[in-house]
Design brief:
single chain, alpha/beta, Rossmann fold, 5-stranded parallel β-sheet, 5 strands, 50% helix, 6% strand
Length: 373
């Protein structure tokens, strides 16, 4: 075995949590982080970046791929929650990755793996749950990847999504998103059943210890009693102050909250959710409250989209007044993505990949790269 292979084999094993946000994912991540063999920083949610990737052109062109590396590193830099003690040099990262299969996911995971290596972790988890939609590519890049499938009652999850600036503001749209995410998870489960552990959020609410022990056993690390006392997590305390979405993350979960959706959703909303998610609800043991017989058409989704867009504008205004820090941090990230898109669209005719039949190759840097005045 050569030294390069040995080094790769020592890297942390990748784990992706899936399939959809607002499932209790932070509660699990923060508790697992008490074990030094596990590392999961605040997620990049690369799904928001994915619409931009085609604008880079041919990633075999070094100019295009280097630009992508720089922009992904920039996305990490504008993350709402910073990764402790991590500063990335895009020049050095590009040089390390230039001869590997090229992908935005490979860049993201390079950042994650380095963060895990800094802490000496055995497992590195990405809580970018929506990346389940790119699981095939992830498995090609990392054949040893594991997946943690966190299922939550769609009625409770949709009720939570309806109030979150990161999702739509309509039960019909969010229920469809829930089903699409679980479709992707089901496909992955069918192909790689031994790589996926499925847990229910409601079971975690009822018995934290049993659920955490199950996860620890699956990924091969030790369960620590400290995981049950999240109030001692510095990150939990920090993020609970940053955003109302995370306010409860420094407290023990409340089992009664599993039924909170009954006060948050109308019966019509519940009927729509159950109609769309009926099959998965039966699979995962969630009892229906209605006949699940709502009539949902393309016009239903169009009307839902109009309602959601109006509510989203109001939500941003309300967030600015209610929590200015949360508003500015989220806007900074949104503005960064908009700026990257504008620059790529403006320079589409001249960036890497254009002007020749063969991808352009940058010189290999054999010595340290220096910027001089």
């Amino acid at each position: 075995m050569d030294s390069n292979t040995a080094n790769v084999n020592k890297r942390p094993r990748p784990l992706l949590m899936m399939p959809l946000r607002r499932c209790g994912s932070h509660a699990l991540r923060l508790r697992m982080n008490f074990n030094p063999e596990f590392h999961s920083p605040y997620p990049l949610h690369i799904v928001d970046f994915m619409p931009l990737v085609p604008l880079y052109g041919d990633l075999e062109d070094d100019r295009a791929y280097f630009r992508l590396v720089v922009d992904v590193v920039g996305l990490q830099a504008v993350s709402m929650v910073k990764w402790p003690d991590m500063v990335y040099d895009p020049v050095e990262i590009f040089e390390q990755l230039r001869h590997e299969p090229r992908s935005v996911h490979r860049i993201v995971w390079e950042l994650l793996l380095r963060a895990g290596e800094r802490t000496g972790a055995k497992i590195v988890m990405d809580k970018s749950l929506d990346s389940v939609h790119y699981a095939d590519e992830l498995m090609r890049l990392f054949p040893d990847m594991l997946f943690l499938n966190v299922v939550r009652d769609p009625r409770g999850q949709v009720a939570s999504m309806n109030r979150a600036i990161i999702h739509d503001f309509d039960s019909t749209l969010n229920a469809r998103t829930w089903v699409q995410a679980h479709d992707a998870a089901a496909s992955l489960l069918a192909r790689y059943p031994d790589r996926v552990l499925t847990i229910r959020y409601e079971d975690f609410l009822g018995d934290q210890e049993a659920t955490l022990k199950s996860v620890c056993g699956f990924i091969g690390i030790e369960f620590l009693p400290e995981m049950l006392d999240v109030a001692h997590s510095p990150e939990a305390r920090k993020i609970s102050r940053l955003s109302a979405l995370w306010a409860s993350n420094c407290f023990a979960p409340i089992p009664a909250n599993a039924d909170k959706f009954k006060q948050q959703l109308s019966l019509d909303d519940i009927r729509v959710i159950e109609t769309l998610a009926r099959d998965y609800m039966r699979t995962y043991g969630y009892e229906l409250m209605t006949a699940a017989d709502a009539v949902i058409t393309d016009a239903s989704f169009e009307a839902a989209r109009a309602r959601s867009d109006t509510a989203r504008q109001a939500a941003w205004r309300e967030l600015e007044q209610a929590n200015f820090r949360d508003y500015v941090l989220r806007k900074a990230r949104a503005d960064y993505l908009a700026q990257v898109r504008a620059r790529l669209e403006q320079g589409a005719a001249g960036h890497g990949g254009a002007g020749g039949d063969r991808p352009y190759k940058l010189d290999v840097l054999d010595v340290a790269f220096e910027v001089t005045d």
